[in-house]
Amino acid sequence: MKKSKLSFLACFLVVVCLLAVGCGSKDTKTDKAPLVKTQQVGSGSLNDSSSYSGTVRGRYETNMSFQVGGQILSRNVQVGSPVRAGDVLMVIDSRDVVQKANQGDAQVASARANLDLAQRNLARYSQLYQENAVAAATLDQYQASYDSAFASYQNALAQAAQGHNAMGYTNLTAGANGVVSAINAEEGQVVGAGQTVLTLVQTNELEIEINVPENRVADVAVGAPVTVNFWALHDRADGVVREVAPMADNAARTYRVRISVPNPPTGMQLGMTASVSFAPQISGGEGDSGSAVLPLAAIYQNGDTPQVWVVGDDNTVSLKSVSVEDFGDNQVLVHGLDAADVVVTAGVHKLHEGQSVRTEADS
Hints:
- Keywords: Signal, Transport.
- Belongs to the membrane fusion protein (MFP) (TC 8.A.1) family.
- Helix content is 26%, strand content 32%.
- The protein folds into four domains: 38-47 and 284-350, Beta Barrel (conserved putative lor/sdh protein from methanococcus maripaludis s2 fold), CATH 2.40.420; 51-58 and 203-278, Elongation Factor Tu (Ef-tu), domain 3, CATH 2.40.30.170; 65-93 and 169-201, CATH 2.40.50.100; 95-167, Helix Hairpins (Orthogonal Bundle), CATH 1.10.287.
- The chain has a six-stranded antiparallel β-barrel with strand order 2-11-14-13-12-15.
- It has helices spanning 2-29, 95-130, 136-167; strands spanning 38-40, 51-58, 61-65, 70-75, 82-83, 88-92, 171-173, 178-183, 190-191, 196-201, 206-213, 225-230, 235-244, 254-260, 273-278, 291-295, 300-302, 305-311, 317-321, 323-328, 331-335, 342-344.
């Protein structure tokens, strides 16, 4: 008898628990409206797909070299050293240059002696010709000798001047204020004339260099305005496209673009990284009356008519037909919406007409 009562009591408790679970699940199914992601048409903007990483560079970067060859005796700068115009950056051994200058002076003296002799001979034979003592052909011969000696003398003078100029080329001097960005030669190294030994970047005018892929270079024009964000400075500045390379890089197949910054922010330095953003290039921009830029996921395609879900004042959704004008990267330009419309931008295929929803503001 006791066992029957216990069995009955156990069955009763199980039924009560099942009823409680069923009631709880029923409440769960009917508790809250779905949460949707929305965007107000008037505040929509294009994703900045035309954004490129760049580096702060100097507008004028000079690869410096000696005009004569020789062994480097001293290097007076390091990488990153600031320099001023006229500072001596490197010095090479001048002994060979001095010897060449002395050689030029000796050639001038020899040419001068030959010229004096030719001049005296010409004067002597001119006098004899006046006395009819020699033929005209003889006088012409000495006139030619004098002209040749004079030309040799002028040539010797030019070579001597070149040798003396070379004596001033043994010191590599900075032509402008700047900073040394690279050094390619060290003390004791023998370098030839024209061989790059260091790079000097002028710091009076800095700009941004970016690389644009070939499928985007048509959207970049000289004089186009851009926005430059500096990651290290947490600041931004307005820029202008100054130069677009006429040819793509052979390896990367990108075009080098230089951005000038008329009003650089405080702390802008060589080598800093920056993000350059171009103005949207999609046709019929979002400023057009009745036009809006939406994520591509906001379009609800029902047959041949594109539509979007619009959230009303009572937080219920309804479909509104739009016309598609253009496409961007994961974006679409549509016409037919009001600036105050709030459009669902995700999960559009899980909604139905008149359904109540919750937006980010409600949550």
